[in-house]
Predict the structure.
Amino acid sequence: MSLVVVGSVAYDGLETPHGKVDRILGGSCTYISLAASFFTQAKIVGVVGDDFARTDIEFLKSRGIDLEGLERVPGKTFFWAGVYSADMNDRTTLVTDLNVFADFDPKLPEGYRSAPYLLLGNIQPALQRSVRAQMNGVRFVGGDTMNYWIRDYRDELLATIREWDFLLINDGEARMLAGEQNLRRAAARIMAMGPHTLVIKRGEYGAILFQGGDHFMAPGFLLEDVFDPTGAGDCFAGGFMGYLAGRGIDPRHKMDHRELRRAVIYGSVMGSFCCEKFGPDRFRDLSRAEIDARYREFKAFTEF
Amino acid sequence: MSLVVVGSVAYDGLETPHGKVDRILGGSCTYISLAASFFTQAKIVGVVGDDFARTDIEFLKSRGIDLEGLERVPGKTFFWAGVYSADMNDRTTLVTDLNVFADFDPKLPEGYRSAPYLLLGNIQPALQRSVRAQMNGVRFVGGDTMNYWIRDYRDELLATIREWDFLLINDGEARMLAGEQNLRRAAARIMAMGPHTLVIKRGEYGAILFQGGDHFMAPGFLLEDVFDPTGAGDCFAGGFMGYLAGRGIDPRHKMDHRELRRAVIYGSVMGSFCCEKFGPDRFRDLSRAEIDARYREFKAFTEF
């Protein structure tokens, strides 16, 4: 079943210990939809400037992504540049030029409104909320957020996630949102804010899924070379939601708990592939067979 | 089968966000042997001063631990004090009084020398090596080390671990010993130094077992309350080795790979219990049934 993805479409300048690229396709919407596209059809909502390259349009189209909701306006595409530390656990932002993204006001094409799955990338909570309101009969909705919205837009964020089925967030942000250091107790507090399903991402250490009184822990994939971690969290989200949408799963049903766990593993698989090349380049030649092989690897190194 | 454990026996002063104790039983040998005692007989080698309390002797005896190798000499027992940060991921040492431990020269009682399992807690590598040399026909030997020995006693440490079957080490120390940031490549380098089995501990994030070209990832247990993490790494070691010794397993045999994975989980289980009370107090009333129940919990929150 189809999945609507909202977020940024951008160009990034990236520097890691493995090299440097001045300008490469990026943005949360881009990474999410590319990762999801291996499981289901993604319909994106975003904005780009008139500098957005035809080759990038072609790349997204080649993955079957519906671009009807990708608005093109005069001006420049959102540009971000950053440099990673030697261990790649920290990064420093060098440039953030919002450009046309500063006035992003997402409007859903008619053909998107009845999609059963909605994934809201990290944008201002009020915008996420307005997109949610444009959907008719959405079955499973959720998204990501970040420290900036948690700290400075708390009420707006709380009103937004109250309507979500799930929240995907990293561990530091979960602690900040909950005002609680212990992850298990932080998770309980966040789930009292609305989402019945919570995924806490822990970077290289994997992810934890919370639902009801239950939790599931997925380790991070142990890559031999982390080339560039940009977008890995978004690819996790795309793999997670793409898998659920592709299988037509409604994770509120008790019987689908196993599928929800599998979705977390597929999210981890997509996040790990993302790190193997600069930007989203690994998705140019990735195959479903490689994805399933890595899924089986996860089984092999966690079973006891 | 019996397990010889060598390391420090100490008193600790501890302060965590949950409270403060001025003096409580501690030391690597203590934590390792207590954790191992739930699976097998531990025979300890250590030194204490004449201030070592009868009640602590009784506690160790009540767990069936063989104290023949626990030397009592004039002077004071090793004392360490530290305070943990609010998130308990860092601790600051306030006092390190080596006292009688400064002249520790481990001598194995005759009845220890033919034990098939040997676990060397974190002490000077030359002492670890001398203990190894006192054993006859040991079947499985390994231990722990720390940044200080890696940095300032490198050659001595390398000569020591060359004779070990396994090394238990935390992730920062593994990177330091290997001179390699990537854990997978660091593991390969360390295993070329001697040990055919390597366990990298990652604190709250669990542990990774490496053997041959294979690895196994165990998550950390998600405690609702981490009361005091002191000794958790040693309890991991004690649970790991205690389980192997109790089952009489020789992990060099290919068919025992599954048992080695189970040993890592039992290590994680014992590390998690250790954090539930101050010092080693949780082991006063812990039961094997509770241990096995937590083992099943690990299965439940990792299966997919």
Remarks:
- Residues 11 and 35 of chain A are 17 Å apart (CA to CA).
- Chain A touches chain B at residues 86-87, 181-185, 202, 205-206, 208, 214-219, 222-226, 258, 261-262, 264-265, 299, 301-304 (CB under 8 Å).
- The mean pLDDT of chain A is 95.
